[in-house]
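pinging the channel bc i need a second pair of eyes. not urgent but kinda urgent?? the chain im working w is below, pasted from the shared doc
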Amino acid sequence: MIEFYLDGRSGVSPYLQIVQQVRHALRLGQLHEGDQLPTVKDVVSVLAINPNTVLKAYRDLEREGLVQARPGIGTFVTRSLTGSSHAALGPLRQDLRRWLAKARRAGLDDESIEALFRSTSRAMAEEEIA
């Protein structure tokens, strides 16, 4: 089961962080069709946030067709976002770990690494379009 966390320094609203974490877990194959998300009560107790925040996140995920609420039972994953085979993720993850270690040795912090990744990814996408 997924365990949510909040990053107060991210500038991203708590409900959107929950939505993003579910999407990431679906993309990485950590959540599968039929898996149950934590109950609103459990998320509220762990994260110390308003229940409406969790409900808003779960409603957004339901509107996207990713989960379905079953009254009195819970919220369940209805589809995956995995775009590639899980077998391909292992070697890519190892390559990424090596690259991250190299970036940290070069003195980059997490924000710098993320900025470099995003700008490079955007540049590559623009090159593919051109």
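so Residues 115 and 121 are 10 Å apart (CA to CA). and The chain has two domains: 14-77, 86-129. — does that match what u expected or am i reading it wrong
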